[in-house]
Amino acid sequence: VQSFNNVSLCISLSHVDLFSPQNAGDIESTLNILNVLDELLSAGTDRRITYMISKGGSEALLSALVTTARTFSPNFTILLPLLHLLAKVGHRDRRIGMKAEKAEAVLPTLTLLKQNVKHTRRTAACLWVLQVFCSSVTTATLLGQNRGLDVIFRLIPPHTTRHKRTVKAAIDALAALLCSKANVRAAVANGYVSALLKLYEDWHNKDPDHETIPIRLALLHCLHQTTHCSAGRDALVAQGGISLLYHTIQTCLASNGLESLVEPAVQLMRKCYPKCPLPLTSDQSVYTFPLPGRPTDTAPGPQDVSFEDDSDDDIENEEDDDLESDVNKLRSRPEPDRPLEQLGQYVRLCPELHHDFQDLDSDSEVDSSSEEEVEGDQDGKGEPPENHLQACDFHSHFLSSASVKQDSHPSMVDRLLEKHGACIPHHDPRMYTAAAALTKSIPEYSILAFPDFWGHLPPQSKEPMAGRKPNVQRKKVFEDVQRLLNPEDVIDEVVFDLEDPSSQGSPDHSDSLSFFSKFECGNLRKAVHVRRYYDLILNADANCSQHHQWFYFEVSGMAANVPYRFNIINCEKANSQFNYGMQPVLYSVREALEGRPNWLRTGTEVCYYRNSFCPSRGQKSSSFYTLTFTVTFKHNEDVCYLAYHYPYTYSALQSHLQVLQRSVDPRKLFFRQQSLCNTLAGNPCPLVTITACPPSKSWKDLHQLRNRPCVVLTARVHPGESNASWVMKGTLEFLCSSDPVAEALREAYIFKIIPMLNPDGVINGTHRCSLNGEDLNRQWMKPDPVLSPTIYHAKGFLYYLNSIGKTPLVFCDYHGHSRKKNVFLYGCSVKETVWQSGSAVNTATLKEDPGYRTIPKTLDRIAPAFSFNSCNYLVEKSREATARVVVWREMGVLRSYTMESTYNGCDQGVFKGMQTGTGELEEMGVKFCQSLLSLRRNTMLYNRRVISQPTLLNLDDNLLDHKSRNCFEDDEPPCVEEIEYRNDSFPEPNRNDLDSEVNGNTSSAEEEEDDEEEHQTTGNSRRRSMKSRLYPHLIGQETLNIKRSPCNGMNISNGQYLS
């Protein structure tokens, strides 16, 4: 307390006329006040300085500065400590620049600088004060208007061993001045970029002992500032700046202790790398589909360019003002969007309610269309000899969806199955081939991808998240820069182009890989062999020009044990789990034929960062990101497939449903596959009903069946979220199994399942949209029956269930999440939304059924991949048209969820540090079903096998076996390497560094000043010679002509201050 009182006393004294000393006693008193203030403020933390600022300390010091500077012969015995103290205080005062302008202290300080350029201590003190003044952009602009840039720039010499503190102060002040766009433009126009590059090179080359690292770092800061505008970046490139930076970085990397110089130089190099349009004829997708009611020659409308996470409920980054705070709106039930009379069409989708079960011994009805098979081609062109089947023979061109032959000659499929045999549970290659033949796509696929045809088994062991080597991204950036510096090494050969059929064969150069993606779910638009790596460009979603994330393609022609680098260069998201241990997946045909049909995580040196590419025809300000990874293939001439995540095609779903249909006992299990509707392209959208058959035809048993509550499950509204389909696969197989819990669930519920809400998007390899170019999960509020038929009829079916008194007990939409780990649920709660929004409504008075938390709590106890604390139940305005919110609000479903599954892995529990595979995803589908027991455990009659599993029944007695983070915390820490290259990427100056510089300037150095004057004459000629080579435009400017300032009315000319 006493120290704060002393500070207040000193401030009070500073307001009296002590800063206009008339005699030696006054000077001594003033110095005492300054020394006491400096000692008080230097001790302890910044609290004292903050206190001084709050009490008007900055204004007092500025007033003293102006008063002292206006004297005919300023007394630097007082001015020097005053300037030092003002620099220390001003560095911590955010408003110091505006205060300096108000006190009319800016231009007098600039005048003091010019008058004392021969006195290094005074010069440094003035520079530090000007630096802190420039925390205000208007102050920096004022100094620039009065030639402050030239004054300060002339104080930066080529390499010297003398007065390094003053040199650094000048560079720091110049960097501070360049916070103003007007100053940046002036600096670029006056050739400062070229001069700064030469200065940086000179200080770099003449500093073998690394004694001037702070000066070199400060010069990099100036270059960062000058490249805030495009003209500055162009100037740096034109002057060979990227080459200079690249080679100086290599020198720094070869020496210890220079890491502080490397990262700013790398970021500067990335920022100035010339923008390069993607080598495409158009940004629009290769695939276009004529939409009903729209002219075929009309281009799609402008797309939403916000590349946020594809999760429907990516809540952690939402601002509170996005939360719905209107209680009435949250609780209101909107009127149906269609007349009640239209709901009659959905009666057919509830066959279990009208079936009389007259013949419980007969098989369930089977949709005849699902049994059809298509005759294949009869010529068998291009098939390899039957006795020499190798991996290279199964290039996708040889595996046709029409290869089910009816003649005596065995097809590729027949010979393949005869030699190797099908080995995947619930998968029949012939049935898959038949289903694929019925699938309708925009490019009319006729080729099957081998993994989809042959099937996949989860690997026997868990796959850990990939480790990240230090500075792996930097290494990739250097390889990208070498492309610019050494264009003669660039091969630049297009080895695959979806728009050019001639490029889809073997490449001209035998040492290039072959690519292919024209199959179901495939997405690769173009592949370019650059140098020792390949640039890959993804196709946009159909009928639009964005949403690049999902990829799935074939690669062949590789050599074993040779690393191949792949760069996917038109990703859109600002960050990715690829920076946190996630890897792409790979499937090898050779491995599959040898009995290991597994999709495996693959890739080393995986990283994700912003690149220099821009749309081919769009705004150059738009950014893309590179996903880069290196794959070393195990076999020569193998055929492999790479994908963003484990693919799951529409044809796989259709064949899987047929296999399940055949596997169930129709006397015990009611399984009915129907078509909800047809998609835009004419593909049926399947709806599956699963429940238990009644034990008899008695009225009591039929009544019990028809009064079972409904559970509605949907998935794959976003085509790129293939993990949702694997979760759904686990759900379907479990519900059709003989597991006692599955039997109990079938006896308790009627399951209505739409396993793929966006078949067209899945088929055509899109990431987010359907063929209408829209996100279907933003159409639930008012879906268009023509353009969004699956959503329109799914909502209509839910309306129908509601109208007949069978409102679903649970609705869950399965999704994938690209930026978070684990599996979690998003639900809807009025109380939690109102509370989190900061509304004035007293949430204690709101009554709400807490049952929406039952399933998440249950899953947290039984599912190792599930994170309860990552769940939340907020209703945002931006998500009001999603399935989760619409079903909750309009249908009144309390337990309306989105279940998000990670693409990466888990950071908790038994799966911690492991990437999720299809086995874990399918298990999650099982666990979700099991969690439904908790809703009816008091009313269900369990058989003995269920009772023997207390984990599922005594849920409240189980302890959590893992801890989860709060959902409002960031899922990941900042990436170890800077993904972006922004204008503000240069690290903020350290306050303690400035304090140290100032304190070092307070030591007695009159000998230094005398020494400087002594050497002035002898060194003048050499200094002028060096300066003329670096910046000739400044030679001959011996006077400072300062413009009139509109801010304070001061007029300074020829370096003289006119009071």
From TrEMBL:
Keyword vocabulary terms for this entry: Carboxypeptidase, Cytoplasm, Hydrolase, Metal-binding, Metalloprotease, Protease, Zinc
Compositionally biased region (Basic and acidic residues): 326-340, 983-994
Location(s) in or outside the cell: Cytoplasm, Cytosol
Cofactors that this protein relies on: Zn(2+)
Region (Disordered): 287-341, 359-389, 983-1029
UniProt domain Peptidase M14: residue ranges: 646-936
Highest taxon above the source species: Eukaryota
SUPFAM superfamilies linked: ARM repeat, Zn-dependent exopeptidases
Enzyme Commission (EC) number: 3.4.17.24
Catalytic activity field: C-terminal L-alpha-aminoacyl-L-glutamyl-L-glutamyl-[tubulin] + H2O = C-terminal L-alpha-aminoacyl-L-glutamyl-[tubulin] + L-glutamate; (L-glutamyl)(n+1)-gamma-L-glutamyl-L-glutamyl-[protein] + H2O = (L-glutamyl)(n)-gamma-L-glutamyl-L-glutamyl-[protein] + L-glutamate
Catalytic residues (UniProt): 900
UniProt biased composition (Acidic residues): 306-325, 359-377, 1005-1014
Molecular function terms from GO: metallocarboxypeptidase activity; zinc ion binding
A Pfam family matched in the record: Pepdidase_M14_N
GO biological process: proteolysis
Assigned GO CC terms: cytosol
CDD domains, per database record: M14_Nna1 (cd06906)
Family: Belongs to the peptidase M14 family.
Protein name: tubulin-glutamate carboxypeptidase
Organism in which the protein naturally occurs: Oncorhynchus mykiss
